[in-house]
Write a structure and sequence with these properties.
Layout lengths: L11 E4 L6 E2 L1 H14 L4 H10 L2 H8 L5 H18 L3 E2 L3 H7 L5 E4 L4 H11 L6 E3 L12 H10 L6 E5 L2 H9 L3 E4 L11 E2 L3 H13 L14
Parallel strand pairs: 1-4, 1-6, 4-5, 6-7, 7-8
Antiparallel strand pairs: 2-3
């Protein structure tokens, strides 16, 4: 069989959600503000800690004398209410790129919970894939490789055939540790380790679809990130 006639290996795209496909920064800030005010804490101080830590770590740092399970239950209540009543915006390019991918060629890998993701996607009109790996799916979250490896397994994909689209350092590290190609989006400066960097999701759409079709040249780890 000639070189040009060889079949191209199937490729898969694994997307983070918040900050990558959906702009939820204002929602997260509002939820944490309401939560902080409920407990008489400074909303700005709480949010700055929450940006760097997971919820249980946030509670331990800012409210060590309070039952963390109670704190988490209150936070979940506010987050669920925000999904029902908050205003959400999909990043430009999200609808286009997700709509062009076959349902079994992509997945969502999120540190949030599936019911909230589905609620946000319903509010923004984005299609939902067959595979969603959420916080309840794994014991180890990002930056562990476990979430992305589980998504690949559920898709029947090999890690080397997967492209991860992320916006945050913990997600980038998760994808890299899983042995996948990782591209960063929606940031002015490239996250350390990404194989390519795009200032926006919109700017990456053509290249993502090219990767998924098998026509994009593979970017090895350590290659120069795109400007």
């Amino acid at each position: 069989m000639g070189e040009s006639a060889r079949p191209v290996a199937k490729k898969y795209v694994l997307f983070d959600v918040d900050g990558t496909l959906i702009d939820a920064v204002d929602n997260q800030r509002r939820v944490w503000r309401v939560w902080a005010e409920r407990y008489g804490l400074d909303p700005d101080e709480v949010y700055q800690v929450a940006l760097r830590t997971r919820p249980m770590e946030t509670f331990a740092q800012i409210f060590p004398d309070r039952d963390p399970r109670e704190c988490l239950a209150a936070l979940h209540e506010l987050e669920d209410e925000d999904v029902r009543s908050g205003v959400y915006t999909a990043f430009s390019g999200a609808s286009e790129v997700l709509g062009a991918l076959p349902s079994r060629a992509w997945a969502l890998v999120t540190s949030n919970y599936e019911h909230r993701v589905r609620g946000r996607f319903a509010r923004t009109g984005l299609p939902v894939p067959d595979v969603i790996v959420d916080a309840a799916s794994v014991e180890e979250g990002k930056p562990s490789p476990v979430p992305y490896l589980l998504a690949a397994k559920r898709l029947g994909a090999e890690p080397e055939d997967c492209l991860v689209i992320e916006d945050a350092p913990s997600g980038v590290q998760s994808g890299l540790r899983a042995g996948m190609t990782v591209w960063g989006v929606n940031a002015s400066v490239a996250v350390d380790g990404v194989h390519r960097h795009f200032g926006s999701l919109r700017a990456a759409v053509v290249d993502i679809l090219a990767f998924a079709s098998g026509t994009h040249p593979h970017q090895q780890e350590g290659s120069t990130p795109a400007k």
